[in-house]
Amino acid sequence: GPGTLPSPAQVRTETGQDKAVRDGTAPTKQQILRGSVDVRASLRNEAAELSLRHSDSPHDAALDREVFRPEDVCLGVPDRARRERTGPLMSSETEFLGTESEKFYELRQELDQDLVSLTLDTSDVDYSELSQGGGHFSLVPVSMPQGSRFGVHTQQENNPPNVLVDSTRGKWSIASTGPSRTPVRWAFTEPGTYAFDLQFTAATPRGGKLTSGKHRLTFAVGDQAINACATWHGETQSPAPSGHGATPPSRPSAHPS
After folding, report:
1. What pLDDT score was predicted for residue 65?
2. pTM of the model
3. Antiparallel, parallel or unpaired: β 135-144 and 238-239
């Protein structure tokens, strides 16, 4: 079942940014509803960095993409992204999607003219500077709609899905063992706003740790949430499942098999 809820001490309190949003003095987020977005990790000056790089075409070189900090963006998943759980998605790996034929919201791996598609991009990371374990993306929910579940997976044609993130199993970490660009599928069961702490971390052969620090990544799921996302600051959401008591996450590779 879903992870346990955090104790009151863990529930997020209002920040200065929240207050600015409430007072109408915060900048609005850039809404992205279409095109291709790279979630790009890079190493600079012995630190890790994260950015979102958006383009209307997946074939644009990285230099031609518009660059955003994750916290400045709201990624939209409109009502037209709803689909039924059928076929290969009936795999036991994707139980978080609900019962057969239950509807959920999905951002596809393949580029769709009407939806945004996301790719995990480590092509700019020099893995020779890292220990054998490579790096990890982590995606930890901060707040989600009441009763919702979500996951991230890859799928090759009619093969069973390779689940990378599963909110019902407290599985938040995606391993990356070499430079790659991995298109991923995102699934959300309920409409509303989902906020995550996104981070890229890696270890050096000398035992040092490189981290991007936490970046807030926001998805507005459903047309109503998209309309509201630029002014959202988390008041109407339930605390995210913490995954406490869940088994330690296994760490699938971000490479497609």
Report:
1. 78
2. 0.77
3. antiparallel
